[in-house]
Amino acid sequence: MDLPNPARSxxxxxxxxxxxxxxxxxxxxxxVSHLAGLLRDPEVWGLPAEHCVELRNPExxxxxxxxxxxxxxxxxEAFVVYFAGHGLLSLNGDLHLALPRSDNExxxxxxxxxxLPHEIxxxxxxxxxxxxxxxxxxxxxxxxxxxxxxxLADLADADGTYLMTxxxxxxxxxxxxxxxxxxxxxxxxxxxxxxxxxxxxxLQMDSLFRHVRRELKAKGRPEPQQRARNAGxxxxxTRNRWAATATATPQERTDEPRQDTAVQHTAPQPTTSDxxxxxxxNEKPFASAAAGRALSRRRREVRNVAIALGTFIAVVSAIxxxxxxx
Length: 326
Prior knowledge:
By secondary structure, this protein is of the alpha/beta class. The protein has helices at about 25-40, 60-75, 115-125, 185-195, 205-220, 240-245, 250-265, 290-325; strands at about 10-15, 50-55, 80-85, 85-90, 95, 110, 130-135, 160-165, 205, 225-230, 235-240. Helix 1 (about 25-40) packs parallel to helix 4 (about 185-195) and helix 2 packs parallel to helix 3.
């Protein structure tokens, strides 16, 4: 599977880390810079810098929607929108993306999420369209996602639309104090930076989602959600860096099993010990009982011969003495 052509694709990476009336989110700044950098990285996707817009702390609804509209209109193969910041709910439960001067009492300064699907589905004609939301209550975006009143033309079976959210519609997204990234985006950045063992290459959105959810669940953090249309789960925007690393040194990986095989084949074969080499204690040789008896017998025979020889010498000596005296 080939990745969408970077020259015919666009991404808008939006982050709000400074607020006048809400708590600041310092990790969001890192989210934006690292994620945008990964999308531009030729080893991950390779978007040209001008095709990957970093929008930090937009001051108004119009500023944010203008950038999304321009990118949506230009994208032909793939279009990605990422937002990280506070999420706010209206009285009727609609999700709003908080801008620097908005809060619950100033929702008119926030961006209603419902304004994004029109740009993503109607304005944009790219084959693959992906939205990633890292904000509280982001699961609210799943309701009626990508389902405007306008009837859409049929999309190709392998392409479509995809949404991943940091939390469910009733849960808060986490921005742990002292951590470099927010909880959700941190796992997202890690997965794209290091790759996912065993996942396909290119990396499909469903595989990315399942890995990020598994990592967050293991840490007891809010679990992300996903929704797709027209096989959107199979959209692949990035390379799986783990696969590239796993094949970077094929010679080393080929040699390892050969060494193991050699050990397995030679281990059972008898070896000749070097008499100068000490043997392990648990392999010290022991003489059999028959060998012990044979050794004792030889020793007795040698002793008897020595006694007989001594007697013979004594007798000869005595005879010689008698003859010399006579």
